[in-house]
């Protein structure tokens, strides 16, 4: 069935519960604003930070909000999605992100990156900041590169700040003895958790509001059902809410009920 008219049926001016959301329209809550502020302060002190969060709990949105809080006049922020890379490949990914030629040997790449970061700081008067996402999949010996990149020659300054983000295994990784020189550069390690029942309700109301609805098209049974199934995970909540809205639309209903949510779960996760 055509769902193009679904938003208007429920009073939305845009499709709700999608991943495409402006930073200004994010769900503003202490759960996210406090770690964002702590990480901003870490970077402001010329240190680094870490963000550890289960999948689907708002890690990427928080990183975008943090980037928005670091003015371009003072910071040069670059985002790099890292996985299980070799030392050379990690340097190549970082080089591409910061506009350095990604060719050459590992020592050559390290030298180019160090020079770029020092140039940003000394010549262009902006502090380079790297956001390294999905760091939980990296090997300790590869993440150890961050110690080398943050220092330049015999200079005692830390020429680079980084925010290392990843899922809970990142916590164990940072406890590795081989990374103690990296963890010493972390001024703060922030964590995220799933939403509570009330927070989930508030989140659903917020997402409906920014999509243009003056009312919430979920009845008294639908909201608890979404929480019981999604357990406060933002990604699961978005998927359930959107699928349930489409089912209600197909059934000619103006309000989503618990049955629509249950059916949405069956379709999403058979």
CATH topology of the largest domain: Rossmann fold
Order of helices and strands: HHEHEHHEHHEHHEHHHH
**Could you tell me the strand content as a percent range?**
5-15%
Count of domain modules = 2
Largest sheet: 5 strands, parallel
Give the CATH level 1 class of the largest domain.
Alpha Beta
What is the terminal separation in angstroms?
Answer: 20 Å
* SS-based class: alpha/beta
Shape: elongated
Portion of residues in helices? 40-55%
**Strand segment count:** 5
Structural features, described:
The structure is a single chain. With 270 residues, the chain is of the alpha/beta class. It has 2 domains: 25-191, Rossmann fold, CATH 3.40.50.300; 211-268, Orthogonal Bundle (Helicase, Ruva Protein, domain 3), CATH 1.10.8. It is 48% helix and 11% strand. Strands 2-3-4-1-5 form a 5-stranded parallel beta sheet, with helices on both faces. The longest helix has 17 residues, at 106-122.
Blueprint of the fold:
Layout: H1 6-9, H2 30-44, E1 48-52, H3 59-68, E2 75-81, H4 87-98, H5 106-122, E3 127-133, H6 140-143, H7 145-150, E4 161-166, H8 169-174, H9 180-183, E5 186-191, H10 197-210, H11 222-230, H12 234-250, H13 258-268
Parallel strand pairs: 1-4, 1-5, 2-3, 3-4
For the structure shown, list the relevant keywords.
Helicase, Ruva Protein, domain 3, 2 domains, elongated, 5 strands, 13 helices, alpha/beta, Rossmann fold, 270 residues, single chain
